[in-house]
Amino acid sequence: MDDTDSMNGEVYVLMLRDFVVLKDLEDTVRDYAPAAVVLTASECDQALALIEGLDRISIAFVEAGAKAVAAARIDTLVAARGGRIVLLGDDAEDEWEAGNQTSVLPILLRPFSSQTVERLLVDLLGRPA
């Protein structure tokens, strides 16, 4: 069992390839929810392993399009743990721009700021920081 499963706080999983953006997003999430467990991965396989090891997730930020998330079953795994997914990155934006997004997953469009991320978290979780 993962140590995070015995904790009562929120759990976030961040999967982004760009280290700088990953760390910026991690800092923003930690500012929003200081008591939260924030797990990071730079590859889909790492993120899947993290998710599979958890009992619950608040939100997973995933650098991928909706089609890739569904193909990797990330959407199913996160939903089974009570969480929500936020898509970001080139593929998510390309699907959004083409009108080909096959799901209703929120997309964090670039450029985004800490305030944009915090507003999104408030909208998804229904509580202010």
From TrEMBL:
It comes from the Bacteria. This is Response regulatory domain-containing protein.
